[in-house]
Amino acid sequence: MVLRRSFPVAFLLGLIAAPAAFGQLKDSPIKFVDRDAIITSFVAAPNLNTGDTPSSVPGEASQWLKVEFHYGTTSALKTPFLDTVEFRVWVEGLDPLATNSQGGKGVGVAFTGSVTYINIAGGKDIYGVFYVHPSTIARYSSSRGVEDFNRKFDVHLQALVGGVVMDEINKNKEQDPLGWYKPLTAIPGLVYRQDQSPFLVSDTSHYPAIKLPAPAQ
Predict the structure, then answer these.
(1) 9-46+59-197 has which fold?
(2) Which pLDDT tens digit goes with each residue over 47-70?
(3) Which of 18, 67, 101, 116 could make an S-S bridge to 86, C-beta 3.0–4.6 Å?
């Protein structure tokens, strides 16, 4: 899905951190824990290079955006395990090279991705994670670089069971807390699951198992 309408950059860069908005469905078996359910940080990829050449360069150019989220099951879950939950994510960014930029300052975009976790044991402290590549961070930010993603750009998450949105939340909040991403240009394929990233073997016991896509025929 590609959404073409964009907002002025002043509006885009006005997303200052504030309490998150909730959208939990009644009788949902899952919910995000609180206003701090989305934690963003910057991490260097593990060195998987077995040779003498460094696998990455120092500084911001080697920093992946890590989007970790905290959720739990509710009393509506009547079984020990929740079979499947899909999480969809929108990460706000800025395209300073867009030809339709207003005033040459860039156009708002939203990176999209999803992960489906399976066989989730009931509990209050369950986590999931997404990653964004350093080159994407560098390409879709202003001259402030990672500071944009630390302080101003929003992250929106939805939890779905059986294709139905059970809960949704933002890291930051603005005038339209559960709909800011809809008018922006969506760019799929720029948010990675853990198994699509160098962090494949990191914190393997911290997250549920991932349901892998069906093999191509």
Answers:
(1) Immunoglobulin-like (2.60.40)
(2) 766 555 555 455 567 899 999 999
(3) 116
Spatial distance between the Cα atoms of 81 and 161, rounded to a whole number of angstroms: 13
pLDDT in tens, 80-92: 999 999 999 999 9
The model's pTM: 0.82
How many residues are there in the chain? Answer: 217
Instruction: Please say whether the beta carbons of 21 and 175 come within 8 A.
Output: no
The neighbour count for residue 74, using CB atoms within 10 Å, is 16
Q: Rounded CA gap, 14 and 40, in Å? A: 18
Are 127 and 70 within 8 A, CB to CB? yes
